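User: Could you check the structure of this?
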Amino acid sequence: MKKIVLDCLGGDNGLSAMLAGAITALRENPEMQLVLVGDASVIQPQVAEFGDRVEIIDTKVNIAMDEHPTQAIRTKTDSSLVLGLEQLKKREDCGAFVSAGSTGAVLTGGFMKVGRIAGVSRPALCPTLPTMKDGQEFMLLDCGANMDCTAVQLVQFAVMANEYYKAMGVDNPRIALLNVGTENTKGNEVVKEAYALLSKLRDEKLLNFVGNIEGDQVFHGNVDVVVADGFWGNVLLKSIEGTVKFVFKSVKNVMMSSLGGKIGALFLGGKLKKFKANKMDKTNATIFLGLKKAVVKMHGNADAVKVTSALQYATTVVDFDLNARIEAALTKVEPLLG
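Assistant: Sure, the predicted structure tokens are below.
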């Protein structure tokens, strides 16, 4: 098993959350090995029990959420994010990098330090989200890395997601294009052009493109991949997150407003928390598809539980060999995109 590099200083909850999550992950997976990048004086005493399963890269420098990504990557060469990405790039024994830092900085750093897979125009940020069907999820890409995309870039997103799902054992993933209607005449010019290109790949049996999908249909469980540019993908994702918070808070308020509701809460409260943990909290870890090695982004507010989940996810994607898969797939489709 290859080592996972963890940026211990990124994110809203800082070193304490990263360390707590890393320790739990190490205890749950005896084969896991980590490279922890952060303040060694704090980290070392807390991970001593794991011996040579943990390596520490010492630094106290962090890239803040509000810093300009490109400038920060270039000037803060001793930051936990930059040092961690450099470890990932130059070391064969390191397979993935995990951070809760600034999305822009993680993407820019991955782009500049790790590099893109041959044929990839832009890497895509792509979380998996739950559906109404038990055990089934869908991938949304892009969800914020690329605000303005061409039709060809949207097709590349679809191709990369297709290879990701095939690596997970899904032979013919169903791919849809986010739009304001299901008809092929709907949407802006970029989306309509992407629809035509994806249809061409479907006709050549290179992709299982199932057409357009509207935002209210994504949870039905009828597709595996939803393709969008980073602007509309992020709007959809943030709308989903906001709706979940609104519903849970509204349900809580209703339950606490009467004696009958409070009694009901005694029976339902635990089940609702379990639902949230099983369905929503697992969407925390997101890979940037298109980079030469696995770069995994956590939510900025990731707590210890989410850090553990992200590290477990990283150990899975390391074994996918996505580089070769995506490069070979893009070579096949490129002649059809001209």
